[in-house]
Design goal:
The complex is a heterodimer of chains A (about 500) and B (about 300).
Chain A: E1 4-15, E2 18-29, E3 33-37, H1 44-51, E4 59-64, E5 67-68, H2 74-79, E6 82-85, H3 97-103, H4 111-124, H5 140-152, E7 158-162, H6 170-185, E8 189-194, H7 197-203, E9 206-211, E10 214-219, H8 226-234, E11 251-260, E12 270-278, E13 282-286, H9 293-301, E14 311-313, E15 316-317, H10 323-329, E16 331-334, H11 349-357, E17 364-365, E18 368-369, H12 371-384, H13 401-413, E19 419-423, H14 431-446, E20 450-454, H15 458-464, E21 467-472, E22 475-476, E23 480-481, H16 487-493
Helix pairs in contact in A: 3-4, 3-5, 11-12, 11-13, 12-13, 13-14
Chain B: H1 8-34, H2 42-60, H3 63-87, H4 92-111, H5 136-140, H6 145-163, H7 165-175, H8 177-182, H9 187-213, H10 225-235, H11 240-263, H12 269-288
Classes of the chains: A alpha/beta (about 500), B mainly alpha (about 300).
């Protein structure tokens, strides 16, 4: 490390009603991997958007390589050597790899020449790519490569990576880290945004921790524990979900060779999925996004019908039944997409509580709604799950992601399900709310229900699951006890590195 | 019935003419939709172009001025759509439908004084030797310049979308406007320009009907050509060459059914009149199959929430 590449001094950005960044200062050295750590809503995204020229700061200044740096648009940031890999990829499905790369460059060379350079650079960094393939046909790991290669072609001095590992298997993460270490050894600085603490400890030299828009601490990740960083990030001691060890009871939900075609054009069909969940058991199902999670949830909720014997609830064949009948029988589900699938965005919380709870909670009679009881039910969810909202008549859309998630999970949990299936129950939820949700799932299992948690967050699965399986291209791996599984074993269950090559560093 | 009265050479020659208004309007709409905007106001912009072009040509005596005025008129009306949908973030479907109704009313108002007039004739391109060739000369080389302009425009748009940087950016904006914005492209500006181009094209197509094809002014004279242009773009899977195919098909059946009516075919004229619409849509539906290939952000409102 020779000098300072970028120093950020007193950056402040306020939006109506909220200060996203308040007087944030830190420095990134040349060839340093600097972590930016914080919960959802801590202001990480706004901060990097200012560095990348997408947002103008209200106050404060930045100095890059000794000169004042005030990018007014991304082109300018790129010209000064700042490149960014986005969390939700900024890629175009209908265009090929070379066209996607060209769009991220100020003056791209001729397509043929560019394709050649993509091949060279991608192989040099151990991220082989075919420039002529359509991006829509690539896996999540390969799409990320396109973004990275797009940045590398411009010889960046500073590479910003926003939550790069959220869509990768552990093996793919290893390949990415090897690439990043090679970049670092060549003198490129990296600003690495994440809330995965072990990753930061493995990769980063320095860390800046943000909470509610303010810088609360800096630390050297190698020298502190993950728990210490977590406390700095949350600002309080984290409550870890607890559970009593229990003896599994009778089989409540069984899938027998469940095979269904995906309704979507780009979906994944389920292939011969067989599993059993017992009373008191939490089954965790991992998998990289798009490997059949949505389809599995839909097949369990009744949105996709199967043959009767493929789904068995408490000994009754329900594979061909629809969602209403399954709810009546006690099989409840919570889908991944909060707005638009789990909840109707423009309807109030009371109405949303009615939508799934009407029958089980007795909120209607002879086809007429009992508004009073519905309101009570909504209020009960809000109270029990600490949903922060002005009241029961607020539109679902107006709630923050974490609060709405608590509401939709709470709505199902309070209906006393026999079997509950949830997909990504804590996606985009802050640590405290996530702990509440996980505890509720564990309590439900302790009460004799069977719980299936589908998630892409491996830490979460290891925390709540008794048994663990993984979905890969619509197939289910062997199901194994969660205790004692190593990260490597989990990665292999998820499909390994999907044929990706390790960087030759 | 006497089918020998139908001259295949004349049939093909008039096919090119009948296809031109729909072709030009559809090319414009193709560009608009590839930029991710669904403008259902093509019919309204065509009829506005038809009256603007007609009035300007009658007043100045020059068809060229007429066509330029038509393009300006269509673009002017589309600017209203651009303001509504790109600046005020109004719903595109509703705004497009309103634009059609508005255009029909506006053109009827302006056109009151032009009913029954004759526009100055648009000269045919007469290329020595080539135009005198038997069959081919009559079909390919005996038309007015606008027919060739339409074909050139098609080639230009195809090449623009496929080979140029600006075309790539336009497709990118239509495919994923959030990503394009994140990369620093001006989504709204690009879309407004595309909408203006689409409006100008629709205006030209409309003027071709009032100045060459009919040639006179009557209220509502575009007769649904704008809707066919819209349908062509969708069923051509947003590919320029398929738009040409669809336009020729539409033009061909239109001319053929007129000939058949003249030849006294014993099918009711109403059925024959609807045949171009039916055949064109049917063929394109079969051709487009299940692969839609529609631009990813088509019809979605973009707001740069930073």
């Amino acid at each position: 490390m020779t000098g300072t590449l970028l120093s950020i001094r007193g950056l402040t950005k306020a939006y109506p009603g909220v200060v996203a960044n308040d007087d944030v200062s830190f420095e990134i050295g040349e060839g340093e991997v600097h972590a930016l750590l914080g919960e959802n809503g801590a202001g990480k995204s706004t901060l990097v958007k200012m560095i990348y020229g997408l947002v103008k700061p209200d106050q404060g200044e930045m100095v890059l390589n000794g000169t004042v740096y005030t990018p007014s648009e991304p082109q300018e940031a790129r010209a000064r050597g700042v490149a960014m890999v986005f969390q939700h990829f900024s890629l175009f499905d209908a265009l090929n790899v070379a066209e996607n790369v060209a769009l991220g460059m100020a003056e791209p060379p001729k397509t043929r020449e560019l394709a050649e350079r993509i091949r060279t650079v991608s192989e040099q960094y151990g991220l082989p790519l075919d420039p002529w393939r359509l991006v829509g046909d690539l896996s999540a790991g390969e799409r990320q490569r396109v973004e990275i290669v797009r940045c590398l072609l411009q010889d960046p001095k500073l590479l910003i990576m926003d939550e790069p590992t959220s869509v990768l298997t552990p093996q793919e993460v290893e390949i990415l880290f090897a690439t990043l270490r090679k970049l670092k050894s060549e003198g490129t600085s990296i600003l690495y945004i994440s809330h995965k603490l072990e990753e930061i400890r493995a990769l980063c030299d320095e860390a800046t921790i943000l909470r509610l828009g303010r810088k609360v601490a800096t630390c050297t990740p190698r020298e502190v524990t993950a728990a210490q960083m977590a406390e700095l990030m949350v600002g309080a001691e984290l409550h870890r979900p607890e559970r009593e060890p229990s003896v599994p009871g009778a089989v409540r939900l069984a899938l027998n060779g469940l095979s269904v075609a995906s309704p979507g054009q780009f979906g994944t069909s389920l292939k011969n999925i067989t599993l059993e969940v017992r009373a008191g058991e939490v089954l965790g199902l991992a998998g990289v996004a798009g490997n059949g999670q949505d389809e599995l949830l839909a097949a369990l909720s009744g949105e996709i019908r199967a043959k009767p014997a493929m789904v068995v609830l408490d000994g009754v064949e329900i594979g061909a039944k629809g969602p209403a009948e399954r709810r009546r029988a006690g099989l409840l589900t919570g889908p991944e997409e909060r707005l638009g699938h789990a909840a109707a965005p423009d309807m109030s919380l009371t109405e949303n509580a009615l939508l799934t709870g009407a029958e089980r909670e007795g909120l209607m009679a002879n086809g007429f709604l009992k508004w009073g009881k519905a309101r009570e039910f909504a209020a009960k969810i809000i109270e029990r799950f600490d949903v922060r909202t002005p009241g029961t008549e607020t539109a679902a859309r107006a709630l923050s992601g974490g609060n709405l998630q608590k509401f939709v999970i709470g709505r199902e949990v309070l209906q006393r399900p026999e079997v509950l299936v949830v997909n990504q129950p804590t996606w985009g939820v802050d640590a405290a709310a996530a702990a509440t949700i996980r505890q509720a799932l564990l309590d439900l299992a302790a009460g004799g229900a069977a719980v299936v948690v589908i998630s892409q967050d491996l830490d979460e699965l290891m925390e709540v699951s008794d048994n663990f399986g993984a979905l890969n291209e619509g197939r289910l791996s062997q199901i194994r006890p969660a205790k004692g599984l190593s990260m490597e074993e989990i990665g292999l269950m998820m499909g390994g590195a999907h044929g990706m090559e390790v960087a030759h560093v | 019935m006497d089918l020998s009265a139908i001259n295949p050479v004349l049939l093909f020659a008039s096919l090119m003419v009948a296809a031109t208004p729909v072709l030009i309007a559809a090319i414009g709409e193709l560009v608009v939709e590839r930029a991710g905007v669904l403008n259902l106001g093509v019919e309204g912009m065509m009829i506005t172009g038809a009256i603007c072009g007609f009035a300007a040509a009658v007043t100045t005596g020059s068809p060229l001025v007429g066509f330029i005025a038509a393009a300006a008129g269509g673009a002017g009306l589309s600017l209203l759509f651009a303001l509504l949908t790109q600046v005020a973030l109004a719903n595109q479907v509703a705004s497009g439908l309103a634009l059609t109704l508005f255009g029909l009313g506006l053109s009827a108002l302006f056109g009151q004084n032009y009913v029954g007039l004759k526009p100055p004739p648009t000269a045919r391109l007469d290329i020595p030797v080539l135009s005198d060739l038997p069959v081919v000369g009559r079909i390919v080389f005996g038309h007015d310049p606008v027919v060739y302009f339409g074909l050139l425009l098609l080639v230009a748009v195809w090449a623009f979308l496929k080979f140029t940087r600006a075309g790539l950016v336009l497709r990118a904006v239509g495919e994923n406007h959030t990503a394009a914005h994140a990369l620093g492209y001006k989504v709204v500006r690009i879309r407004v320009l595309a909408i203006l181009f689409g409006g100008a094209c629709a205006g030209l197509g409309g003027a071709y009907i009032s100045l060459v094809r009919v040639p006179q002014w009557t209220e509502g004279m575009t007769g649904g050509a704008g809707w066919i242009a819209l349908a062509l773009v969708v069923f051509a899977s947003w590919k320029p060459w398929r738009v040409l195919l669809g336009a020729w098909l539409f033009g061909g059946v239109t001319v053929l059914q007129l000939n058949l009516q003249a030849a006294g075919l014993e099918i009711r004229a109403e059925y024959l009149s609807m045949s171009p619409y039916l055949v064109t849509i049917l063929v394109l539906v079969i051709m487009s199959g299940h692969r839609s290939g529609s631009p990813g952000s088509l019809g979605r409102t973009f707001h740069a929430s930073q």
